[in-house]
Amino acid sequence: MNPGVVAAITRKDVVDAVRNRYLLTALITPLFLAVLFRVLLPGPNPRNLLTIVVHDSANSTVVAALRQAPEMSVVDAPSADATASEVQKRKAVGGLVVPANFDADVIARKQPQLTVYINNGKTVFEQAAFRRLLDQHVKAAVKQPEPVRLVWIDVDKSATEQSGVAGGLAQMLLPLLLIMTLGMIGAMVVPLLLVEEKEKRTLDFLLASPASLKEIVTGKALTGVVYTVLIAGVLLFVNRQFVGNWLWTSLTILLGLVFVVAIGLFLGSILNNTMQVNTWSSSVLLALLAPSFPSLGLPAVLDTAMRFVPTYYLSEALKLSLSGHGFSRIWGHLTVVLVCTAIAFAASAWALHRRH
Amino acid sequence: MNAIEVEKLSRTFNGLKAVDNISFSVEAGEIFGFLGHNGAGKTTTIRMLSGQLLPTSGRAHVAGCDVITEQRRLKPLIGVVSEHQNLYERMSGRENLEFAVRLYGQDVRRVNETLKQVDLVDRAKDNVRTYSNGMKQRLLIARALLHRPQIIFLDEPTRGLDPVVGREIRRLILDLSQQGVTIFLTTHYMEEADHLCGRVAFLSDGRMVALDTPKNLKVAHGHNSVNVTLENGESLTIDLNDHDAGKQLEQLVSAGQVRTLHTAEATLEEVFIRMAGRELSQ
Q1: Using CB atoms, which residue from B52, B80, B86 is nearest to A202?
Q2: Taking the C-alpha atoms of A17, A22, A28 and A33 in order, what is their torsion angle to the nearest 10 degrees?
């Protein structure tokens, strides 16, 4: 492998990509959305995004875990009956009533009931964030598949959505925008870089030059890396107050980047022209993005289906690392992504070898 | 020493023989014409000789390198001008050449020299998509010359160009040959091959059907006769095999009746049709 040749190809592609309107659109879309939401929905309180009211007479492990969560601010309610009114009074996203003997009932696998109040006056994104975080923390604190029965109660059914509180929104959006960046690179940028060389026959020139196929492909992959690092870097910098764990957020993005580059190389190998890339990239992008959308009461079947998409695990790992969690919480998700990356690379190597 | 040596080279695609057992050699500094109809196997041969495609069987050495096992050593020694104008159209002419210079690990200053050589200095900063066909063709040749190759493969370099630009390209090819560069040229234009090439090979359906100098081919397959146009406008053909042909010609010339006199040798195209059994355009 000649680093000079690889660098020449990457340099050429980095410059040439921004002159291609289609690629430029793909590259700046996540940045544009990030800036748009930052302008339209400035967040007043970037940390302790979700305030919840809790009545927990039993000092349960679940509430202890919630108190530790960096994305939540927990306020105590004087009684179970006062919880709903406290939610409204404090403009919290929700409330939680934990019954006595909760921990003992969980250990005995009695599936105790947790009553959850949800404030309809908050944005759907905040509500979704609350639902997801609560679900995650309950499952993490009580290591059983279905440890409790959650009973959801709306605090104010007539309330309309309020916009202007962007903390939860931003927290939900950042993983989405990061996955969108990765998706754009994997589904559009890298395949187009390869396909255009085939379509315009410039690949013949490259293959007649000292560049080997391996160096050409590496150059294209590195172009994807350069753009992802740039865009993801800007996204993280703009939303830096939402990054709880920089190390693991960065590592998760890097792993996701390797995964999407492998997907891009595979697509670029099997597709022959720009038209085919345009046709397929939207579907692939949608599939990659779907798991990172906030789950707003999706049917269980769809929710389960999402778990078959590798970006579901990438998205979960990102949400956790952005929330400040580290290796102990995200290693499982990253392992799934790692395995999928290996499979994607094997597939792209096979496709490239077959085409050559 | 031969610049190119090809021995029983074949290439098969899905059972179809694109190139079938061809053998030839090209001397260093020679302009070698490789002629054939569409799909005859010319481009496939170039792709094999330039290390872009592996042969199914046979051997070839280009610039002393085995095209199968020594591709990495071979590529800096050759230049290829594709039949397609495969330039990066969103980039300027200069950027195209700078990219090529980096691939070949050459000095960027070489770009200016080459731009001058093909007379593109004034338009070097413009996007290639604004170039005419002739300019693109000159840029393609410039790109192939950047690293000073020993051998250059030109695949239909004058196709679709107007006569003036075609003549410029032919002049460039002759200049390169005078500088000692070996030229492997494929073309549809028989007159061009006749004018430029020291030797030509005819390829038909992947097989080589002839290999010689254009002159020898024309003589071997021409008519042994002369066409005479008389002052009164009448035309006649005199077969030189007739025993009184010399006397007949002498009488016409001494009587001052001859306006023009041409040997009736075949054109290269006629020779090709005779040998390949089809026309070049087929």
Answers
A1: B86
A2: -170
A97 DSSP β-pair partners:
A55, A115
Order of strands across the sheet with B57-62? B16-27, B2-13, B57-62, B65-66
Superfamily, domain A50-154 = abc type-2 transporter like domain (3.40.1710.10)
Show Cβ contacts of residue A109 under 8 Å, excluding neighbours closer than 6 positions: A144
Residues A33-73 have pLDDT tens digits of 877 777 766 554 444 468 899 998 878 888 888 888 777 88
> Can you give the C-alpha Rg of chain B in angstroms?
22
CB pair distance less than 8 Å for B102 and A19: no
Q: Which of B47, B82, B105 sits opposite A205 (nearest CB)?
A: B82
Note whether B99 contacts A: Cβ–Cβ < 8 A: yes
Residues 6+ positions from B139 with CB-CB distance below 8 Å: B87, B93, B96, B97, B118, B120, B128, B131
Q: Where exactly are the structural domains of chain B?
A: 2-213, 223-264
Contact assessment for residue A129 and residue A170, using Cβ atoms and an 8 Å cutoff: no
Percentage of the residues of chain B whose pLDDT score is greater than 90: 37
Domains of chain A: which residue ranges? 3-39+167-355, 50-154
Tell me: pLDDT of B60 over 90. yes
Shortest CA gap A199–chain B (Å): 10
CATH code for residues B2-213: 3.40.50.300
- From the list B213, B151, B152, B146, the residue with the least C-alpha distance to B2 is B151
ipTM: 0.81
- pLDDT digits 0-9 by tens, B44-54: 999 999 988 89
Q: Is B95 on the interface with A (CB under 8 A)?
A: yes
pLDDT in tens, A115-166: 899 887 776 667 777 877 787 777 776 666 666 777 777 776 554 444 333 4
Enumerate chain A positions whose Cβ falls within 8 A of a Cβ in B.
4-5, 7-9, 11-12, 15-16, 19-20, 200-202, 204-212
Number of neighbouring beta carbons within 10 Å of residue A198? 17
